[in-house]
Amino acid sequence: MDMRNEATHLARGESNRVATAQQAGAEFLTFRLGGEEYGIDILRVQEIRSYEEPTRIANAPSFIKGVVNLRGVIVPVVDLRIKLGCEKVEYNGFTVVIVLNVHGRVVGAVVDSVSDVLELAGDVIKPAPEMSSNMETAFITGIASVGERMLILMDIEAFMSGRDMGLTDSTSQALQ
């Protein structure tokens, strides 16, 4: 399959997945990054832990903070605030690590704070707006308005599987 057909195939799969989620509704873990609030599929979340300083890995990108030992499993820790370009990154008592299961791997994601778990009906989830092609927004699956709150819904598995993340190898992605 050439790159254009593969991209079209992936885009159709993404559209179908979002449409299915919109029809059925879903549960999302919501968290804050700077001034924005995000939501991810609760089924990807393994646990939420307080932030502990990871062991740094030499030559890793700045957004990969290092690794931690989680009950015998070495877990890479990604700071979503750095990866998504938040202006200010401060570690405080609210900073947590969301432990995720992504393509069969355990990965930690540092966020400012966790808000709650929301069940969103399909009719409150709107498609993500079209953005210029040079912006990385393929992981945004929709926008939901909940009262005064606006949630950016993201496909954390797609986000963590990006080539620049280096957290999954190409053979495991091809099998998915």
Task: Encode the helix/strand succession as letters.
Answer: HEEEEEHEEEEEEHH
Oligomer: single chain
Q: Going across the biggest sheet, name each strand in turn.
A: 8-1-2-11-10-9
CA-atom Rg in angstroms: 16 Å
In words, what does this structure look like?
It is a single chain. This protein has 176 residues and is of the alpha+beta class. Helices cover 21% and strands 40% of the residues. The protein has helices at 3-24, 80-83, 156-160, 170-175; strands at residues 26-33, 36-41, 45-50, 64-70, 73-79, 96-102, 105-111, 113-120, 125-126, 140-146, 149-154. It has a six-stranded mixed sheet. β4 (64-70) and β5 (73-79) form a beta hairpin. Mean pLDDT is 80; it is low at 1-23 and 170-176.
Topology summary:
Layout: H1 3-24, E1 26-33, E2 36-41, E3 45-50, E4 64-70, E5 73-79, H2 80-83, E6 96-102, E7 105-111, E8 113-120, E9 125-126, E10 140-146, E11 149-154, H3 156-160, H4 170-175
Parallel strand pairs: 2-11, 5-7
Antiparallel strand pairs: 1-2, 1-8, 3-6, 4-5, 6-7, 9-10, 10-11
